[in-house]
């Protein structure tokens, strides 16, 4: 038997990646190492993941390869899964109990203010303290010295500017050589080195020094812009407090939030922010949950309610039971998924990356032809045409083009997360921007998903109590809204449910189980009897309980459309989208819900029927399927975009392409508007980058623009497209009327 060797996945934080070109250099250096099977890089979150096969490069070798390029590497720490605290255990250990935790805190003590941040040493801006900032300062000082020498000692002007050029160029040339050793000859560092050295050779020392200085300034500006984009994602994790009040007996003490484990009891004072997902054990209070849902209005929660991490207690003291460790809280998972989504590149982004791979060699070839062609073929002056070729090299750098897409996508993902719209990557954004149809499930999507049992019609010889008792037994363990309604009705009547075996849910059909020695099945009626017809006409959903194929009775359930359903569908119509409802329910109750809303209906659909309809709609144009993320998995997966609506449930967050965290149907239009705006900005950025490149390529060849203006145009284009992308951080997708 052949042993299977395990592939390790290692994650790092990479410091110094300020543009997509940087990410490409890191990826290129790592991919060439032996045994590296895959490399994923998220530029804005500065994260890199590599799969390393046994016998290949180690994590240390990966780190050395990247640090040689001038970037920093910090390996992500791994931690053991949190231990569940069982009843009777304390999991505590404060000073008096043995855990060495912080001091006791009075339950009603006022929340402590966070310590004020220490002032920056010597008030130095953040950009100055980095390597790139120091390079700008050194290069600028050397350039100023060169200008001083040129005024005071004109004969030494060339030497002064040459020295100024070398001060800024040596670090760039060193990085260019490191990249060359990794098989990456066509980089901006190599182009800059060639251009600056060429300028020194032909006597343009002053311009060479200016070019190197402007290049250093451009790198710092890229870093500042990248940090601005990262702030949107960092803001999610900043909302997580570092400590919490852990309860032990009659006292509570402050502990690190990371140390909390499921099952422990914590206290949340008015004004405090919750550090972990938890369930209220005691107390009623209003809570601001906008960190997760984006909903600004506080909601009232009481015992038994689930409260997400990041919620702020507005009124009364609460006691809560921890349900998830801090690292696995809803807010932490949202922040993590937004960061991961950034690595899921859109098709347009992958196309631009492929384009840049042959674009750079093309520019180098074109520059070589400009340098030697006119002098050899038309008797041109060598110095003049070499100078133009060097300017062409600088303007040809594709930095602005490469950063134009990921900057916009990262800003859109961050904006969506703040608004309760969780989108899993640029590919999803691009797909949503070209949708033509939105298909919606009925129960829990168009309706509130809180049906109630309205009628019990037992067959001859059966009672209502027996019918409900057996139906609830079959539905035990099911999470479908209809099942929950039947179970709730049985609980209200205080019915004791019989044990069942071989219980299973039949997706899109119903449920079945063995109860008291006989097979029971709960599903849609097979025959349209007068009772069934009357109930359907009244807009009710009907299920039939059978034993060995014999009917035991009918149960009808009623549900109501969401209050915002009509508004949501109107907004989708204004966006030019076709809307329809796909449901397994019978035609009459489906039409009773859809008719007043102006929805087209596909009723009586099994899961495979929904799947076929979604595939057909997708073939005719982009289609979005909206469901609860559980019962519509095949259709959600087959759609161009699958959207789960359900207040951020675990399954919804994990399975869908996008999640409406606020559980509001009107957020569908917000998703579309955000995606269309993101793609609009992407198109603007590509046009800006290519337009400026094209303009200055022509002017460089014609000799109208020189070296310093060429590098200034390249840097300006990069900063301009990044700033344009950052407009998405201020975009309000909930604003109606846009498209």
Number of helices: 24
Mean pLDDT level: 79
Give the strand content.
15-25%
Q: Separation of termini?
A: 60 Å
Counting DSSP E segments of at least 2 residues, the number of strands comes to 27
Q: Main β-sheet: number of strands, strand sense, barrel status?
A: 7 strands, antiparallel
Can you give the helix content as a percent range?
40-55%
User: Which regions are unreliable across 5 or more consecutive residues at pLDDT < 50?
Assistant: 1-5, 84-90, 98-102, 106-123
| Global structural class | alpha+beta
Q: Give the C-alpha Rg.
A: 32 Å
Oligomer: single chain
| Cα shape | elongated
Strand order of the largest sheet: 5-7-6-8-14-9-12
Integer count of domains: 5
What is the topological layout?
Elements: E1 8-15, H1 20-31, E2 36-42, E3 47-52, H2 59-67, E4 72-75, E5 104-105, H3 126-129, H4 131-152, H5 157-181, H6 188-201, H7 205-238, E6 243-248, E7 251-256, E8 265-268, E9 278-282, E10 285-288, H8 290-293, E11 299-301, E12 306-307, E13 312-313, E14 318-322, H9 330-343, H10 347-378, H11 382-395, H12 399-418, E15 421-423, H13 426-433, E16 435-440, H14 442-446, E17 452-458, H15 464-475, H16 481-492, E18 500-506, E19 510-515, E20 518-523, H17 530-537, E21 541-547, E22 550-558, H18 565-574, E23 578-582, H19 587-594, E24 600-602, H20 607-619, E25 622-627, H21 633-638, E26 641-645, H22 650-655, E27 658-660, H23 667-701, H24 707-726
Parallel strand pairs: 16-23, 16-25, 23-24, 25-26, 26-27
Antiparallel strand pairs: 1-3, 1-4, 2-3, 5-7, 6-7, 6-8, 8-14, 9-12, 9-14, 10-11, 10-13, 15-27, 17-22, 18-19, 19-20, 20-21, 21-22
Helix pairs in contact: 4-5, 4-7, 5-6, 5-7, 6-7, 6-11, 7-9, 7-12, 7-24, 9-12, 10-11, 10-12, 11-23, 11-24, 12-23, 12-24, 13-23, 15-16, 17-19, 23-24
């Amino acid at each position: 038997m052949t042993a299977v060797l395990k592939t390790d996945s290692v994650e790092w934080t990479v410091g110094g990646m300020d543009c997509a070109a940087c990410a490409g250099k890191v990826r290129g250096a790592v991919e060439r190492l032996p045994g590296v099977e895959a490399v994923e890089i998220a530029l804005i979150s500065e994260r890199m993941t590599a799969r390393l096969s046994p016998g290949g490069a180690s994590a240390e070798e990966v780190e050395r390869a990247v640090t040689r390029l001038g970037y920093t590497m910090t390996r992500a720490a791994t931690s053991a899964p949190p231990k569940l605290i069982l009843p009777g255990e304390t999991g505590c250990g404060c000073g008096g109990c043995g855990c060495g935790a912080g001091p006791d805190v009075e339950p009603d003590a006022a929340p402590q203010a966070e310590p004020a941040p220490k002032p920056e040493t010597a008030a130095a801006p953040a950009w100055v303290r980095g390597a790139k900032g120091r390079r700008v300062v050194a290069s600028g000082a050397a350039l100023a010295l060169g200008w001083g020498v040129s005024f005071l000692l004109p004969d030494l002007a060339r030497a002064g500017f040459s020295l100024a050029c070398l001060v800024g160029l040596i670090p760039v040339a060193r990085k260019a050589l490191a990249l060359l050793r990794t098989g990456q000859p066509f980089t901006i560092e190599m182009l800059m080195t060639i251009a600056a050295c060429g300028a020194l050779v032909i006597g343009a020392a002053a311009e060479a020094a200016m070019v190197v200085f402007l290049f250093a300034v451009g790198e710092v500006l890229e870093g500042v812009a990248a940090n601005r984009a990262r702030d949107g994602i960092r803001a999610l994790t900043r909302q997580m407090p570092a400590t919490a009040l852990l309860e032990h007996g009659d006292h509570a003490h402050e502990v690190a939030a990371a140390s909390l484990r499921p099952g422990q009891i914590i206290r949340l004072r008015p004004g405090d922010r919750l550090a972990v997902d938890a369930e209220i054990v005691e107390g009623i209070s209003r809570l601001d949950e906008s960190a997760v849902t984006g909903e600004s209005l506080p909601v009232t929660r009481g015992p038994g309610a689930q409260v997400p991490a990041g919620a702020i207690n507005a009124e009364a003291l609460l006691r809560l039971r921890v349900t998830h460790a801090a690292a696995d809280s809803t807010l932490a998972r949202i922040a993590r998924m937004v960061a991961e989504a950034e690595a899921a590149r859109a098709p347009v982004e992958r196309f631009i990356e492929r384009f840049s791979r042959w674009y750079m060699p093309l520019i180098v070839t074109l520059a070589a032809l400009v340098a030697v062609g006119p002098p050899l073929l038309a008797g041109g002056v060598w110095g003049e045409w070499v100078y133009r070729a060097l300017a062409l090299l600088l303007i040809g750098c594709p930095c602005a083009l490469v950063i134009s897409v990921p900057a916009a996508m990262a800003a859109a993902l961050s904006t969506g997360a703040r608004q309760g719209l969780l989108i899993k990557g640029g590919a999803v954004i691009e797909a949503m921007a070209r949708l033509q149809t939105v298909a919606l499930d009925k129960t829990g999507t168009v309706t509130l998903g809180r049906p109630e049992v309205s009628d019990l019609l037992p067959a001859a010889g059966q009672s209502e109590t027996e019918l409900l008792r057996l139906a609830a037994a079959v539905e035990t363990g099911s999470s479908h809204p209809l099942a929950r309604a039947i179970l709730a009705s049985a609980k209200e009547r205080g019915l004791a449910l019989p044990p069942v075996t071989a219980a299973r849910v039949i997706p899109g059909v119903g449920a079945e189980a063995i109860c008291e020695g006989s097979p029971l099945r709960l599903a849609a009626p097979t025959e349209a009897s007068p009772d069934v017809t009357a109930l359907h006409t009244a807009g009710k959903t009907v299920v039939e309980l059978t034993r060995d194929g014999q009917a035991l009775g009918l149960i009808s359930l009623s549900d109501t459309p969401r209050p915002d359903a009509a508004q949501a569908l109107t907004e989708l119509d204004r966006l030019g989208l076709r809307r329809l409802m796909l449901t397994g329910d019978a035609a009459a109750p489906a039409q009773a819900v859809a008719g007043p809303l102006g929805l087209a209906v596909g009723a009586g659909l099994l899961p495979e029927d929904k799947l076929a309809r979604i595939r057909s709609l997708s073939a005719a144009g982009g289609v979005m399927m909206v469901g609860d993320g559980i019962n519509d998995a095949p259709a959600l997966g087959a759609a161009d975009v699958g959207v789960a609506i359900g207040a951020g449930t675990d399954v919804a967050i994990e399975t869908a392409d996008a999640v409406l965290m606020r559980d509001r149907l009107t957020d569908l239009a917000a998703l579309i508007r955000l995606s269309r705006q993101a793609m609009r900005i992407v198109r603007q950025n590509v046009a800006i980058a290519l337009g400026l490149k094209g303009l200055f390529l022509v002017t460089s060849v014609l000799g109208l623009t020189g070296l310093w203006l060429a590098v200034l145009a390249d840097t300006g284009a990069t900063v301009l497209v990044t700033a344009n992308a950052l407009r998405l951080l201020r975009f309000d997708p909930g604003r109606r009327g846009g498209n």
